[in-house]
Amino acid sequence: MIKKEDIFPIGQIIKPHGINGEMAFSFTSDVFDTESVPFFVIEMQGILVPFFIEDYRFKSNETALVKFEGINSDEKARIFSGLTIYLPKAFLEKVEDTEIELDYFVGFTLIDIQLGEIGVVSEVDQTTENALFVIPTTDDELLIPVGDDYIQEIDHENKRIIVDLPMGLLEL
């Protein structure tokens, strides 16, 4: 059985393409092209299901078309619209950190190299120009910018993000 903690998101199905079950999808990582990825994992009615890739082709640097085995009509493909595409974490080491969808980091502990543990990321706010890690506190919540300038290390196995935040940022 596939578990949520054993996968990470790489994209989303946009819509059916044509009448033979092909689907357009957007992606943040093209690891499926550089590695031998036999299947994508998609959550269907709360169950993580592997769908074996029959064929795929790129449309642009951010979108592609995929055809899954056994999905042979527009009607069957339509069910996938809007669903997230996941890969097993075995492929994570092949993916650049900048290619990982930010929601993946929910549940990671943020640790500052000066101040120590700050808290656990409860969500990633992407409504502003700069994405923010949201960390609940007893009084309110902390909003920490997601930026390469601050992130020193990402420990996927232990779900930790090591940061070096500017002095005074947490007091704002």
Report on this model:
The longest helix has 5 residues, at 74-78. The N and C termini lie far apart (44 Å). It is elongated and about 55 Å long. The relative contact order is 0.17. It contains 2 helices and 13 strands; from the N terminus they run ββαβββαββββββββ. The model has no long low-confidence stretch (mean pLDDT 91). With 172 residues, it is mostly beta strands. The protein has a 6-stranded antiparallel barrel with strand order 1-2-5-4-3-6. Strands 8-7-13-12 form a 4-stranded mixed β-sheet, with no helix packed on it. Strands 9-10-11 form a 3-stranded antiparallel β-sheet, with no helix packed on it. It is 5% helix and 44% strand. The protein folds into 2 domains: 4-98, Beta Barrel (Elongation Factor Tu (Ef-tu), domain 3); 102-164, SH3 type barrels (Roll).
